[in-house]
Amino acid sequence: MAASRVALLGHPVAHSLSPRMQNLAFEAAGIDWEYEARDVDDVVTAVAELQIEGFAGANITIPYKQSVFDICDHVTNVAERAGAVNTFWVQDGELIGDNTDVAGFDFAARELMLSARADMPKRVALVGAGGAAAAVAAAIRDWDDTELVIWSRDPQRARTLAQRFARARAEPDLSSAVRGADLVVNATPVGMSDDELPVPMNALPKKCPVLDLVYRRGETAWVRAARDAGHAASDGLPMLVEQAARSFRRWLGVEPNREVMWGALE
User: Fold this and answer.
1) In 3-state terms, what secondary structure has residue 20?
2) For 149-158, b where at least 16 C-beta lie within 10 A, e where not — what string?
3) pLDDT in tens, 113-136
4) Superfamily name and number for 102-238
5) For the residues 102-114, what does the mean pLDDT come to?
């Protein structure tokens, strides 16, 4: 296969493990491709530059997933449901957008509930209302009879997101949003660069599993604190690997070696 390039666009991206993970996966598959991260202020201009430079596609991260959805020529049904794009490729000069975060979150949540020896949740509290939160909501839509309660520092964004999904509602008070939850998910950047907790420990229901979509070396403070308090807890690495594997498959039409991807994170 001819050499080609893909990229990660976002702000910030310096912390991202995606370039190492994808480049090792390309190497393991014998594919002469290269993945790079670009910290950008204007994602529309950045996407246009990738097209001019002949990139095959890209991943999109905070805070541009919804902006790129708006500029794609076509999107998959999953991306349409989420209203956000985290993966695109160029086909006949057009941008085709997908959202592999949806499957990535579904995988991570099921793995967490399995490790907690718990049934799939009947009520999920979701902190955040951006592109990552939209992917969470899109995944939960397909869970039987699961209620989704959304809280955001921007109440209007929470209401707007909740209105798009059945069995979803916005809650203006964080403590009320997490009360009675069987799973609490952080879909904000809180804790990415410091030890701030997205949800206070005393607000979490007893033994409720927590899933932090943020990842960092040594896990986030929230994951560590939750585990110390007796909660099953996971950071965003399982979701990162699964969404990356599905992006790889979208670009190349073949499955990557997930063991290699996991090894890249160590």
Assistant:
1) helix
2) bbbbeeeebb
3) 999 999 999 999 999 999 999 999
4) NAD(P)-binding Rossmann-like Domain (3.40.50.720)
5) 98
From-to residues of CATH 3.40.50.10860 in the chain: 4-100+239-259
Residue 266: band (very low, low, confident or very high) from pLDDT cuts 50, 70, 90: confident
| Distance, CA of 86 to CA of 135 (rounded, Å) | 9
Task: Determine what percent of the chain is predicted with pLDDT higher than 90.
Answer: 98
Q: Which residues are catalytic?
A: 65
Q: What is the pLDDT of residue 197?
A: 98
pLDDT(162) > 60: yes
Alpha-carbon dihedral of residues 245, 246, 252, 258, nearest 10 degrees? 20
Which alpha helices (DSSP H) does the chain contain, by range?
A: 18-28, 43-53, 65-71, 77-82, 101-115, 131-140, 155-162, 174-178, 221-228, 237-252, 258-264
Q: Which ranges in the chain are annotated with CATH 3.40.50.720?
A: 102-238
- Architecture per CATH, domain 4-100+239-259, reads as 3-Layer(aba) Sandwich (3.40)
By the 10 Å C-beta count (0-12 exposed, 13-18 middle, 19+ buried), 195 is classed as: exposed
Instruction: Record the tokens describing residue 219, joined without a space.
Output: 């896990």
Closest CA to 158 of 148, 170, 166, 173: 170
pLDDT tens profile 91-103:
999 999 999 999 9
